[in-house]
Write the structure tokens for this entry.
Amino acid sequence: MEREIRAAGGEASYVRADVRVEADVQRFVDTVASRYGGLDVCFNNAGITLEKPLHEYTSAEWDDVVNTDLRGNFLALKYEVPHLIRRGGGTVVVTASSNVCTTTEKRSAYTAAKHGIVGMVNCAAFDYAPYNIRITR
């Protein structure tokens, strides 16, 4: 993807990061902010799912879905917000899911995490509005 963007005349950089690893997320955000002189717009779109009835999830499987989908987005916001404050504001879009409105069978971990994102984003929007930071889903 990076090559295609550059071939079309755009600017693109690849920075590998696992959203489940806090140091990776911090390094990713700081690298991007440094490379481009700060942050103006962030798009947080990490997510996975594992489909099975709730009682069949192992604790590790449940944690993997929730840590990727919810905690990963928390970590992204945690490290993006200071850069946005220094910049004087900006926008963060966090991907939730239509599963927060209606869901289907075998998606309990995913749906729980996405509901958590809605709550987190709603609170963060209030927390950072005074800094001219718009956080939405």
